[in-house]
Amino acid sequence: MLRPVCFDVRKYGSDWMKNEVVPPIIKGEQTVVLSITEAFAGSDVAGLRTTAVLDASGENYIVNGTKKWITGGMYADWFVTAVRTGKPGAGGISMMLIPRSDAVQTKIMKSKYSSSAGTAYVTYENCVVPKKYLIGTENKGFQIIMSNFNHERWMITVVCIARVRMCTEETFKWSMQRKVFGKPLIEQPVIREKLAQMFAGVETCTQMLYDITYNMVSMGSQGAEVGARIALLKYQATRMNHLVADNAVQVFGGRGVTQTGMGRVVEVFSRMYKIPAVYGGSEEIMADLAVRTAIKGYPKQARL
Ligand SMILES: Cc1cc2nc3c(=O)[nH]c(=O)nc-3n(C[C@H](O)[C@H](O)[C@H](O)COP(=O)(O)OP(=O)(O)OC[C@H]3O[C@@H](n4cnc5c(N)ncnc54)[C@H](O)[C@@H]3O)c2cc1C
Questions:
Q1: Cα 299 off chain centre by
Q2: The pLDDT of residue 108
Q3: What's the Cα-to-Cα distance from 217 to each of 131, 213, 220, 221, 226, rounded to whole Å?
Q4: Which pLDDT score, from 0 to 100, does residue 11 have?
């Protein structure tokens, strides 16, 4: 799985990583995953506990710790791993490119996410990592993590909007063809109102996505303002997923909760739509980031 993970290595990695590690990943011969979250550090990334300590020679780090919900972890050849090399908090975190070895164990985590995602619990036990595998500068890993998030959140939103558009289309088609009390469902004002909510949600998020994408391409994808706007877009998209899933299941009735037949797309969507509201920065964290950024830019003298 490529995902934006490769962005870390391509942007912040050393030349040998770009020349030797990246090409097989781009060609699809090897896979890389992002290994940040821990049982102790989810939303609060700065609290992570996996340690990387230099050995007596000063040439190798010894990595110990665990990671949770690592997408693609079961198949990964490389783990872009967040580790603690310094003081507590964000200022003591580094990023490392760690190859799979006997000292890196992966165990499947069963979740409602696709079983083909290979979601893993990862254990690093006295894992020897040469210094040259450090990505960027020691204790500057938090900035790398944050810069990657803008791309990852943008990508998650694109997928959300594509899925929700499909679910809305299915619901529209069903309302047109299903006859209840002698006439198609679409002739019921209550159903049309539900569809209006869905259309408006999809269109609003699509327009926000176009606008932000245009700005990312023309003015760059980093910085507080673009980060806040992407966070707001992800928040809006996952809230909209919630509304669309709820409305779609109602309009499909029994078929909306049946895994086969005409409601199958809606049934899958209603089971899965919560996942992007959690990963890549949860809904609450996205909302908080956007509003905190607005507060920072608020003119001190502003009054009503
Ligand atoms: C399917 C899946 C795939 C994933 N893939 C990866 C991966 O590839 N790599 C990786 O590193 N991680 C991955 N994750 C982990 C994901 O990023 C975390 O689950 C996420 O950051 C939330 O952390 P948590 O689950 O520990 O929740 P917690 O941080 O414990 O939060 C629990 C709840 O409290 C809320 N909350 C937390 N802090 C606040 C606050 N300050 N204010 C208000 N509410 C708050 C959260 O929004 C959440 O709803 C994945 C997760 C899932 C479910």
A1: 32
A2: 96
A3: 35, 6, 6, 7, 11
A4: 86
Q: Is 83 helix (H, G, I), strand (E, B) or coil?
A: strand
Instruction: Give residue-wise pLDDT tens across range 162-177.
Output: 999 999 999 999 999 9
To the query of whether residue 225 is one of the catalytic residues in this protein, the response is no
Closest to 81 in 3D by CA, of 111, 110, 50, 106: 50
Residue from 81, 151, 279 to probe ligand 1 pocket by mutation (most atoms less than 8 Å from CB): 279
State the catalytic residue, choosing from 29, 59, 125, 152.
152
Task: Report the separation in Å between the CA atom of 49 and the middle of ligand 1, taken as the mean of its atom positions.
Answer: 16
- Distance (Å) from CA 38 to ligand 1 centroid: 9
Q: Is the dihedral of CA 78, 79, 84, 86 positive or negative?
A: positive
Name the residue among 151, 148, 153 with its Cα closest to residue 8: 148
DSSP code for 275: G
Query: Are the C-beta atoms of residues 75 and 83 closer than 8 Å to each other?
Result: no
What is the enclosing helix (H) or strand (E) of 122?
A: strand 120-130
Domains of the chain: 5-139 (2.40.110.10), 143-296 (1.20.140.10)
- Residues in contact with ligand 1 (CB, 6 Å cut-off): 33-37, 42-43, 69-71, 111, 113, 119, 275, 278-279, 282, 284-285, 288
Instruction: Determine which helix (DSSP H) or strand (DSSP E) holds 78, and give its type and residue range.
Output: strand 78-84
For residues 180 and 265, what is the distance between their CA atoms, to the nearest angstrom?
21
Segments in 178-272 forming alpha helices (H): 189-219, 224-252, 264-272
Spans of the chain, pLDDT less than 50:
1-2
